[in-house]
Amino acid sequence: MQEIEYIGYAAGFLTTLAFLPQALKVFRSKKTRDISLLWALLMTFGVFLWFCYGYANHSLPMMIANGITFVLMLVILVFKLRFK
Amino acid sequence: MQEIEYIGYAAGFLTTLAFLPQALKVFRSKKTRDISLLWALLMTFGVFLWFCYGYANHSLPMMIANGITFVLMLVILVFKLRFK
Q: Membrane-spanning regions, if any (chains A, B) (predicted)?
C-alpha cells in the first residue's frame, strides 16, 4: 500500500473520531437544541458526496471515513428532526 | 474537467459551508465553553491530513475544501485556547 494511503486512513480516523463524542452526546441526551439543523443537513449531504467522490476515485480511506461519518451524521440528523 | 470533480467541489462546498456558522459564532461571541477542545484538535489535525492526502492525489476539490476548513478550525482552536 502506498504511504499516501496511510495519511488518508489517519485523516479519516481523526475526523471520524471527532464526530463520535457529538453523536454519542446526542444519542444519550436526546437533546439537540444547541445543534443547528442547517449544519446537520449540510454535513450529512456533504459527507455523502465525499463518499461518492472517494468511490469514483477508488479511495478506500475516503469511503470508510465518510461512510462512517455519514452514519453518525444521520443519527444526529434523525434525533434533531425527532426531538427538535 | 471530469464530472467526478464536480461532485468533489459540491462535497467540499457543503462541508466547508457547514463549518462557517460555527466559526463565525465563535469569532463574534468569543464564547467556546460548549465546544470540545478534543473535537477541535482532532478536526484541525484531521482536515490538515486530508489536505495533504488531496495534495498527494492531485485533488483540487480536496485541497480547497480542507484548506479552508483548516483555517476555520484554526480560528475555532485559537479562540478555544485563548478564551477557554
A: 6-24, 36-56, 62-81
Report chain B's mean pLDDT, rounded to a whole number: 89
ipTM of predicted assembly, 2 dp: 0.85
| Domain span including residue A28 | 3-83
Give the residue on B whose Cα is nearest the Cα of A59: B57
pLDDT score at A42:
93
- Provide the domain count of chain B: 1
CATH of the domain at B7: 1.20.1280.290
**B54-60 long-range Cβ contacts below 8 angstroms, 24+ apart:** B56/A4, B56/A7, B57/A4, B57/A57, B57/A59, B59/A57, B59/B8, B60/B5, B60/B8
Contact A43 B4 (CB under 8 A): no
